[in-house]
Amino acid sequence: KQEVTQIPAALSVPEGENLVLNCSFTDSAIYNLQWFRQDPGKGLTSLLLIQSSQREQTSGRLNASLDKSSGRSTLYIAASQPGDSATYLCAAGSGGYQKVTFGTGTKLQVIP
Amino acid sequence: DGGITQSPKYLFRKEGQNVTLSCEQNLNHDAMYWYRQDPGQGLRLIYYSQIVNDFQKGDIAEGYSVSREKKESFPLTVTSAQKNPTAFYLCASTLTGAGANVLTFGAGSRLTVL
């Protein structure tokens, strides 16, 4: 059974800092790894999707990497801003498109 | 704009009552999903549907029921058999086939049992 872990559960950084969020998964036989953002009381917004054949994806200040062999993905946020404050969740897709396992998220606070 | 609409945003239920959460999408997505989110836990899959008139149980289907009579709609009923229904419920959809798997979520419905 796939298990997805995100450490730390919470992170507080000063504005402007570059930061890395971590995601680890136990079963390397994944189809893709997706990163989401969730604001309080809201749904999830997809940030980046990395297919199993890819090593990384970039969107603006965000860069996500995938290392299947080590069961790890990272989300890099450059020059953090207060508007980046949210909970970030990763999700590993495996065993078919309906088999998506979510981590519990990292709650990020960017302090002005 | 295309997206997923969930309603109501907030819902209060007395014990013993059934309630239905609505989920409508205009993305022409084939597959639809219902997840439950509790504090400190990852999202857990309740039910999913790949095509009209077909749906499958997820990891925590007990006490829930769904229907898929139209491609655009996938309502979730929380029955009185669900012992701990207070949670945040999220509906999602995705295309199927090659290039699929990007999950699109609605804004969620928060259910509170009084």
Task: Tell me what the structure shows.
The complex is a heterodimer of chains A (112) and B (114). With 112 residues, chain A is mainly beta. Chain A has strands spanning 4-5, 10-14, 19-25, 32-38, 44-51, 56-59, 62-67, 72-77, 86-93, 100-102, 106-111. In chain A, strands 2, 4, 5, 9, 10 and 11 form a 6-stranded mixed beta sheet that branches. Chain A has a 5-stranded antiparallel beta sheet with strand order 1-3-8-7-6, with no helix packed on it. Chain A is globular. The model of chain A has no long low-confidence stretch (mean pLDDT 93). By secondary structure, chain B is mainly beta. Chain B has strands at 4-7, 10-13, 19-25, 31-37, 44-51, 54-57, 64-66, 76-78, 87-94, 104-105, 109-113. In chain B, strands 2, 4, 5, 6, 9, 10 and 11 form a 7-stranded mixed beta sheet that branches. In chain B, strands 1-3-8-7 form a 4-stranded antiparallel beta sheet, with no helix packed on it. In chain B, a hairpin with a 2-residue loop joins strand 5 and strand 6. The A-B interface holds A 4, 31-32, 34, 36, 41-46, 49, 89, 91, 93, 97-98, 100-105 and B 4, 6, 31, 33, 40-43, 45, 48, 50, 56, 88, 90, 92, 94, 96, 100-108, 110.
- Straight-line distance between termini of chain A: 41 Å
Average pLDDT for all residues of chain B: 91
SSE succession of chain B = EEEEEEEEEEE
Q: Sum up the overall morphology of chain A in one term.
A: globular
What is the quaternary state of this protein? heterodimer
First CA to last CA of chain B: what distance? 36 Å
What share of the residues of chain A does DSSP label as strand, in percent?
Answer: over 45%
- Structural class by SSE content of chain B: mainly beta
What sequence of helices (H) and strands (E) makes up the elements of chain A?
EEEEEEEEEEE
Shape descriptor of chain B = globular
Helix content of chain A: under 10%
Helix run count of chain B: 0
**How would you state the average pLDDT of chain A, rounded?**
93
Low-confidence stretches of chain A: none
Q: Strand portion of chain B, in percent? A: over 45%
Radius of gyration of chain B (Å): 13 Å
Low-confidence regions of chain B: none
Indicate the radius of gyration of chain A in whole angstroms.
Answer: 13 Å
Name the structural class of chain A. mainly beta
| Number of DSSP-assigned strands of chain A | 11
